[in-house]
Amino acid sequence: MAGGLEPHLAALRRELGGPAVLSVLVALIAVAITFLIWRFVQGRKSSRKAVLLLGLCDAGKTLLFARLLSGRYRDTQTSITDSSAVYRLSQDKSANVTLIDLPGHESLRLQFLERFKAAARAIVFVVDSVAFQREVKDVAEFLYQVLVDSTVLRNAPALLIACNKQDVTMAKSAKLIQQQLEKELNTLRVTRSAAPTSLDGSATGGPAQLGKKGKDFDFSQLPMKVEFVECSARGSKGEEGEADLEALEKWLVKVA
């Protein structure tokens, strides 16, 4: 094959003025292909404008959703459907994302995640920092299901673990929550024996590799960037005070 192409390459070199020009041409073609691939990847990313709010029931997702949009406190109840709204970032009126608050009930959360996961630019996984020690296994189970999903792995949306209810004295710190989640996710990775099913219902043929084989799991091993913040949708002064969402708001600006 190489011998058959050599005469044509030699002729092309003569026409273009020598091997230097041909090298430049090859380099330009490589740059053009790289640029087209970059544009394709960026186009796919820019088409995903949703920020999904996930978490167990009573983690505070709906109040957090309301606070981000209006800044005001309002009474909430357990959601049985999704809520969505455009969230404008800082003073830039043209920069925005679509916040989508998904139900946290065990019988509904995967169903709604299936519906919106492909549009996710980022995911905010809300954790009840007060009830965390009691709910850690359930929190880790839900998070594990999200992290091994084929669509989430492929798109690798930015992930924020929002440790909510930090206004309560007994709230666990973001650092402790991260350590406990890594431990529980590592246990789940080891003990899952049945072939998992992705959120779209298709069998994967074996466990999705969460993290690096042969090493204890930590969040830095994931294909998406994972960050932890402490926040309070209620705020330290209760209904009349302001929420403590500054770290979350800065993160939203960064991932938009």
Describe this structure in words.
GO terms for molecular function: GTP binding. It is a single chain. This protein is an alpha/beta fold. It has a single domain (50-195, 209-255), classed as Rossmann fold. It has helices at residues 2-16, 19-46, 61-70, 109-116, 132-147, 150-155, 174-191, 246-255, and strands spanning 50-55, 83-88, 96-101, 120-128, 158-164, 226-230. The protein has a six-stranded mixed sheet, with helices on both faces. Strand 5 (158-164), helix 7 (174-191) and strand 6 (226-230) form a beta-alpha-beta unit. Helix 1 crosses helix 2.
Summed up, what is this model?
By secondary structure, this protein is an alpha/beta fold.
Provide tags for this entry.
256 residues, alpha/beta, Rossmann fold, 6-stranded mixed sheet, 6 strands
Would you spell out the secondary-structure blueprint of this structure?
Blueprint (H helix, E strand, L loop, with lengths): L1 H15 L2 H28 L3 E6 L5 H10 L12 E6 L7 E6 L7 H8 L3 E9 L3 H16 L2 H6 L2 E7 L9 H18 L34 E5 L15 H10 L1
Parallel strand pairs: 1-3, 1-4, 4-5, 5-6
Antiparallel strand pairs: 2-3
Helix pairs in contact: 1-2, 5-7
Largest sheet: 6 strands, mixed
CATH topology: the name is: Rossmann fold
Helix content: 40-55%
> In total, how many domains does the architecture comprise?
1
Q: Calculate the mean pLDDT score and round it.
A: 83
Please write the CATH class name. Alpha Beta
User: How big a fraction of the residues is strand?
Assistant: 15-25%
Membrane topology: Single-pass membrane protein
Subcellular location: Endoplasmic reticulum membrane
Protein name: Signal recognition particle receptor subunit beta
Pfam family, one: SRPRB
